[in-house]
């Protein structure tokens, strides 16, 4: 897919817009396209926009749903925290989110004290994350959480394979985008609609699972819709089912 145009709505942020263009390979846009997607940098944040289909998509760690989960989300009893192994862990595990997307699960884990490396190969998703982490770092309520989040723009399969033994995380978290057809699934949400158009589905999930198993010291956690197809490969050690989401666990060692 050709580089997306970036349209600047806040002239005083031109230097930051240029940084995003240089870092992620976007192009300057002078006018809103008649069709397709574009990035828009305003006074508050960076957004992924399109004509008519849905509202703007952006990553957010300070306000809205992120704030609610931070303040009233249920702590270590949250499903993703339980799947990672936080509920009974005495030492917080290091986590790699190998399909970071908009970083929602990564933020939950970082808010609970984990150090999380967010790996994202899409320049669009990575730019949205970069912008959101920067905003969180400047807010006193979330600065300490943002400090525990490290963003890596890379293909997770190659990046995981390149890790030295000393750098391997305790847990690798994988939440791939599959070409689901269930209208009630996460694919029906506006951000997933946009991501599937701009980024595409994760058709190499089997290779990613193998890379994750090779890199994780303790466990791999795969997040899927409850009735979604499993990733091709070894059977999970444990399956945790919720009302709409399922976690497939590939356990190598117990967390301390």
UniProtKB/TrEMBL annotation:
GO terms for cellular component: cytoplasm. The gene is rsmJ. S-adenosyl-L-methionine binds at residues 104-105, 120-121, 175. It comes from Crenobacter intestini. Belongs to the methyltransferase superfamily. RsmJ family. This is Ribosomal RNA small subunit methyltransferase J. It comes from the Bacteria. Its EC number is 2.1.1.242. One of its GO terms (molecular function) is rRNA (guanine-N2-)-methyltransferase activity. It is found in: Cytoplasm. It is an enzyme of class 2 (transferase). Keywords: Cytoplasm, Methyltransferase, rRNA processing, S-adenosyl-L-methionine, Transferase. It catalyses: guanosine(1516) in 16S rRNA + S-adenosyl-L-methionine = N(2)-methylguanosine(1516) in 16S rRNA + S-adenosyl-L-homocysteine + H(+). InterPro entries: 16SrRNA_methylTrfase_J (IPR007536), SAM-dependent_MTases_sf (IPR029063). CDD domains: AdoMet_MTases (cd02440). The lineage of its organism: Bacteria, Pseudomonadati, Pseudomonadota, Betaproteobacteria, Neisseriales. Pfam families: SAM_MT (PF04445). Specifically methylates the guanosine in position 1516 of 16S rRNA. Its main location: cytoplasm.
